[in-house]
C-alpha cells in the first residue's frame, strides 16, 4: 500500500516550529510520508502565525497558495483562534485548529487522509522529526504566558503559562544530544517564568532531585556537554543567578531579553513585566561576572503616546548599554490588542523615521563591538559549506537572527563541526576569519 503523503508549511516563531516538528513526528510514526511539494502531497497542513498584521496576511496568503496548488488544506497554529477570519477568505479549508493542538490536527488528517494500516514505527528517529538542520534544535520548555502586554495577543491564542516538567524536558534534550545535536536553543513565551505554574516542583533526573525552575534547568542542560542558548528571558531578578553558569562555561554566555522599551511610562502603558528594573545596572553587573556575555534584545518604537524625548531616551540607553545584537519594530496594531485603543497614536511616517534612526544608531554600536573582537581566536559552529568556504556562528550568534562568521576557503569542513577561527575582519553584523 502506498503511504499517504503530507505537505507541511510552518510559519512564525521557533515555538511554532516546535509544534510543527511534533505534528510531523506523530504523523511520520503512523506511516505518513512527508512531501516537499504541493503536487506530490495528498493533503497540506499550514501552521500559521497571527502575531502581527503582516504575519496574518502571510498566513492567509500561504493558505491560499496551498489551496490553489493542492486543494486539500488543514489549518493550525496561532491564527487558528480566528477561524471566522480564515474561513471568510478561504471557506474551502478542511479544518481549522488553534495553537499547540497536536491531537486535533492529527485527528483531522486521519479524517481526510486515513493512515496506512501497517505503520512503520522504526521510520521515526528517537529525537523525532526536526525541521532544523541536524546540528541544532529548538527545545520548547513551556506553552503560553501569564502577562497581558497591551501590544500582544499571544495569551488569547496560546493561553496562560503551562510548563513542562523538568524531567520531561531533560529526556528530550538528552535524546537530541545523543542524536548529534550540537546546540540547543531554549524557547518559550517567557523562559524565566519556567516552572512558576508548577510551583517549581522537583522531579528525579539521573538520580538527583531537580526543580522545575529556570536556574536548575540551565544547570542540568549544562551537563550535556553541548551549546545551550537561552531565548525570551524576561529580566526578573532571579535571572542574575544564571550568569555564573555562563562564566563557568556550562551554558552559552548569551541572553535574549525582549526589553521592548526603557522609558518607565511607556513600559507601564505596554504593561511589561519587570518594568521597574534598573536594567543598565543589571547589565553592568552581568558583564562584571561574565565579561564575554552577549546581550540581544528587541525594542518597539512609535508605541502609542511615545514622545520624541522618550524615543531619544531609548537611543541613550543603547549608547550606555552597548548591547551586542538588537532588533527593532515600528509599532503595528494587532487585531484584538488593548494598545489599539490607547490615545495619541504615532503617525506612520514618524514611526518609520524613528525606526531608521534607531537601527542606524545601533549599527554603529554593533560595528564597534564586533571590531573589538578582531584578532581574537573563537570557537565557531559550522552551519553551511559553500563554494567560497564555510559559514559558521560564534557563541554570540543565534541562527537566523544574529550575525555569521565567514571562513574563506574552508571547503573541507562539515556542517556541525566546531572549529577555532582567528577573526580578522568585521562589518556591522558579521565577521570574517581563518582557521587556526
Fold blueprint:
Blueprint: E1 5-10, H1 14-29, E2 33-35, E3 43-48, H2 53-69, E4 73-77, H3 83-89, E5 95-96, H4 102-112, E6 136-140, E7 142-143, H5 154-158, E8 162-163, H6 166-178, E9 183-187, E10 202-205, E11 208-211, H7 214-222, E12 227-230, H8 243-247, E13 254-256, H9 264-270, H10 279-289, E14 294-301, H11 308-321, E15 325-330, H12 348-371, E16 377-385, E17 389-393, E18 405-408, E19 418-426, E20 431-435
Parallel strand pairs: 1-2, 1-3, 3-4, 4-5, 6-9, 9-12, 13-14, 14-15, 18-20
Antiparallel strand pairs: 7-8, 10-11, 16-17, 16-19, 17-18, 19-20
Helix pairs in contact: 1-4, 11-12
Question: Care to give the gist of this entry?
Answer:
Belongs to the methylthiotransferase family. RimO subfamily. The chain is of the alpha/beta class and 436 residues long. It is built from twelve helices and 20 strands.
- Spatial ordering of strands, largest sheet: 2-1-3-4-5
What fraction of the residues are assigned to beta strands by DSSP?
A: 15-25%
As a whole number of angstroms, the C-alpha radius of gyration is: 22 Å
Number of strands: 20
Helix content: 25-40%
Characterize the largest beta sheet: strand count, sense, and whether it forms a barrel: 5 strands, parallel
CATH superfamily of the largest domain: tm_1862 like domain
Unreliable segments of 5+ consecutive residues: none
The CATH architecture designation of the largest domain is Alpha-Beta Horseshoe
**Terminal CA distance:** 54 Å
- Overall SS class: alpha/beta
CATH class of the largest domain: Alpha Beta
Overall 3D form: globular
CATH topology of the largest domain: pyruvate-formate lyase- activating enzyme
Count of helical regions:
12
Write down the overall mean pLDDT.
92
Number of domains: 3
